[in-house]
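Reviewer comment 2.1 asked that we show a complete input and output for one of the modelled complexes. We chose the 2-acetamido-2-deoxy-beta-D-glucopyranose case, as it is the one discussed in the main text.
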Amino acid sequence: MSDKGLHVIIVGAGLAGLATAHGLKTNNISHVIVDRESGPRDRNWGVTISWAHPLMKKLLPDDLYANLQSCQPDISMDTKAAGKECILIRDGASGETKIEAHFPGVRRMQIQKTKKAWAVGLNIKYGKKLSNITTTDDGVTAHFEDGTEESGSVIIGADGGTSSVRKWLLGDLATSEVLPYAFMNFPFTLKTEQALWLDKIMNPNVDVATHPKSMYLGLFLLDKPDLSRPETWIFYILVTWPIKTEEDKENSGDRLKRLRDHMDGWADPYKSVVEWVPHDVEIKPDWLRIWHPKPWDNHGGRVTLAGDAAHSMTFHRGQGGNLAIKDADEFVTAMIDVRDGKTTLKEAMDKYDVGVVERGQEVEISKKQALAFHDYANFDNSPVMKMGIKAAGT
Ligand SMILES: Cc1cc2nc3c(=O)[nH]c(=O)nc-3n(C[C@H](O)[C@H](O)[C@H](O)COP(=O)(O)OP(=O)(O)OC[C@H]3O[C@@H](n4cnc5c(N)ncnc54)[C@H](O)[C@@H]3O)c2cc1C
Ligand SMILES: *[C@@H]1O[C@H](CO)[C@@H](O)[C@H](O)[C@H]1NC(C)=O
Ligand SMILES: *[C@@H]1O[C@H](CO)[C@@H](O)[C@H](O)[C@H]1NC(C)=O
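Response of the prediction step:
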């Protein structure tokens, strides 16, 4: 290390970047976060947090941790009190339960509320899109499209599934794989009676189904802007099926019609909800992208990855959010050891990188789960049926 002292540059203010920043702040380690966005993005979704709870307690300031419930889609939901510390998988043709995978304390967190709450008190520079990285013997510099730069000791690329830091590290090897499934992901509201019915009947965390016709459909709550007015409640659907037609491949045209054309043989709640979706709902084109980590040269311990940048997986086992927090915790631990002189930066980063790549085995497990949701006959052999939603290897 140079005598300039340890200074961390975090690229990306998503779950991984924000958790890392809080952990560094808690431990008084100098850092900055940059993000290419200048304001909140319109895309919003939920993540399932299960085994990462104790790690959030370590990383976040006490008041933020105590108020995690305010980051939920439904801020009034206490899964423990409601007896709903589980996710639900049904048979799409009958609506019957296939499995309830339990996890103590499991909760959904809405990504926009979480980003907003976790940004408070951090040094975040927005409008900084990473364009290049340069390293020297005693440091590393992140260059941004607006011509500015940040210099420090180490860069952690927490810049998501299409990470620029990953691209810088690995070139073409950083390109993600697109799974051959039609994929739709869209929010909608319902009429008062319909929203009340769905809210009562659905699992509040994850309510998804595998259908014998080779199709996956999930219902989720995104937000309850006004708890007393069900017509304001926002739900969303995730749906996937293997691409068979040119239309699916092109991923264009009237997507709601294409979805409805696929709904024969579905039971409630899915059947009715798809019928009730407002006809003018917007369904943007989307793809299921994954990336298996491949070991990278960390340039003397100067550049590494975390979260989706390090391992992008589909949502089928609900692990992405948990792993983002785990990476943050491991990185912060490494930085504490470097700061305290227990190890060199190079040694600490080599060790961190081994761990992050190993945790990336979840990409393959989640891919298996994605395939299993479209292979009804063999669903009982799928990872969720065997290991639930706990961390791989535990
Ligand atoms: C549409 C969608 C739906 C999802 N649904 C689920 C789900 O249902 N369940 C689940 O468990 N997980 C889901 N995930 C995955 C989960 O949200 C992630 O695993 C988790 O949020 C980890 O986030 P991250 O911090 O690694 O990356 P992100 O949250 O993607 O954050 C990356 C940040 O980096 C910034 N950035 C990107 N490029 C640059 C650059 N060049 N320069 C500067 N900044 C940059 C971005 O603006 C962004 O703020 C979903 C993800 C998406 C995108
Ligand atoms: C935090 O670090 C700064 C700079 O290294 C130092 O001046 C300060 O005393 C530290 N504070 C605590 C609480 O350790
Ligand atoms: C990044 O920086 C290196 C070293 O200065 C340079 O060779 C390379 O062309 C730069 N790449 C881009 C995309 O600007």
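The chain is about 30% helix and 25% strand. We note this here for comparison with the apo prediction described in Section 3.2.
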